[in-house]
Amino acid sequence: MHMRSLFFICLTVFSIDALADFITPNDRVTRHVNVRDAASNGNNIGKLFLGDFAELTGEHGRYYKIMLPTGVSGFVAKSWTTLVQADSLADSATGKLELHFIDVGQGDSTLVRCPNGKNILVDAGSNSGGSPEEVSDYISEVVGDGLIKIDTLVITHADGDHYNLIQDALLGMPVGKIFHVGYQNHYKLKSFWTWLQSFPSERVTRLGKDYYDKEGSPNTRIDCGDAKVYVLAADIRSNSSWKNARSIVLMLKYGEFEAVLTGDATKATERAIMARYSDSFLDIDLLKVGHHGSFATSTSQGWTDALSPEIAVISSGKKNGYGHPRYEVIDRLDEYTLNNAEPHTFTSATRPSGGYNYQSAQEYNEQIYGTADSGNVVVIAGGNGAFEVSTKHHGEF
Question: Which residue segments constitute the domains of the chain, with CATH numbers given?
């Protein structure tokens, strides 16, 4: 890889192309609104699902006249729907790839803002130190005023610290496509599975162990504009840390900038990925470090050598009881990360005997960041390979 230059750009707001007002189901709706052939209790001719939009073409008393994306025209009750005016939609794509690693304490959540204005949310969960309100507030602050849509939601695996904030955090935000792994009995939070099943089946995809995108053939179902998305692995089977091993692992490629988001991927997942792809393909710029920086399960030496990341981000809680992140993992990473970062605090753990010993570096200049110390970590990349890193705690917007 080439050394990257750093630059500054401003955060702007998310774009939904719109030339007309829209109708969408309101918060009373659990699944869909019936579309009828008359402004009355007419025949059902279609359905408007949660998270979907239909163009407003007229009003008739207690009904809106709409046109579905399929071209079908019909009527929906005003009492079950919301009018979204065109000028209230969050607007203007940045033309940059933005990776927002949201501080959720001992958990994980990443918001990807694509060059074309699409939003991808990868996980939102926490065992401690995170709340759905903080996730929601952060997304709203970053995206800006107006209706915010999560175009793609990825639930990397069925551990609660990766999904248990999603349902409440996304209240009032339409959700498009959803990708996940595992089955109902893998998700301990029953209300979440019920929420997941409330979406139309064509929008929810469970990825199996043989699902991955071949080198040079990016995913066609996840739209991130000029930034291409690859599913590197999903549902990899292992007897050790089996839920974590099943994590969906994503790569984002925007021109000369590449990032890998790992969920809680284990060494078994890492081996599967390294067997599928060439060394040159896996040579990246940014690594979202697996399993909160665990030394026991993730970030093997071979994986670190293959990816050779220039930036690394770790999501974990402050001095947690798991020893995340471990010093040994950081030691591997800083063989490759750039050492030109603005001085910041970074804390890692050792385990000399028994419990964990946490130590903090106060003037740390490696391009390695932890949400436990830095709060929300933002990496903004241009297609030319240049990037900017900034950090901000909740409440500092």
Answer: 22-88 (2.30.30.40), 97-392 (3.60.15.10)
**Token pair belonging to 212:** 């991955």
Q: Measured between alpha carbons, how far is 382 from 388 in angstroms, rounded to an integer?
A: 9
Task: Per residue of the chain (397 residues), give pLDDT as tens.
Answer: 444 433 333 222 223 333 468 899 998 998 899 999 999 888 999 999 887 888 899 999 999 999 886 778 999 999 999 998 766 656 557 899 999 999 999 999 999 999 999 999 999 999 999 999 999 999 999 998 677 889 999 999 999 999 999 999 998 788 889 999 999 999 999 999 999 988 888 899 999 999 999 999 999 999 999 999 999 999 999 999 999 999 999 999 999 999 999 999 999 999 999 999 999 999 999 999 999 999 999 999 999 999 999 999 999 999 999 999 999 999 999 999 999 999 999 999 999 877 899 999 999 999 999 999 999 999 999 988 899 999 999 988 6
Q: What are the phi and psi torsion angles at 257 (to 5°)?
A: -105, 130
C-alpha–C-alpha distance, residues 191 and 81, integer Å = 24
Considering only CA atoms, which of 221, 155, 164, 138 is closest in space to residue 393? 138
Q: Give pTM, 2 decimals.
A: 0.84
d(CA 290, CA 309): 13
Q: Two tokens at 20?
A: 């007309």
- 3-class SS letters over the chain: CCCCCECCCCCCCCCCCCCCCEEEECCCCCCEEEEECCCCCCCEEEEEECCCCEEEEEEECCEEEEECCCCCEEEEEHHHEEEECHHHECCCCCCCEEEEECCCCCEEEEEEECCCCCEEEEEEEECCCCCHHHHHHHHHHHHCCCECCEEEEEECCCCHHHCCCHHHHCCCCCEEEEEECCCHHHCCCHHHHHHHHCCCHHHEEECCCCCCCCCCCCCCCCCCCCCEEEEEECCCCCCCCHHHHCCCEEEEEECCEEEEECCCCCHHHHHHHHHHCCHHHHCCCEEECHHHHCCCCCCCHHHHHHHCCCEEEECCCCCCCCCCCEHHHHHHHCCCCCCCCCCEEEEEEEEEECEEEEEEEEEECCCEEEHHHHCEEEEEECCCCCEEEEEECCCCC
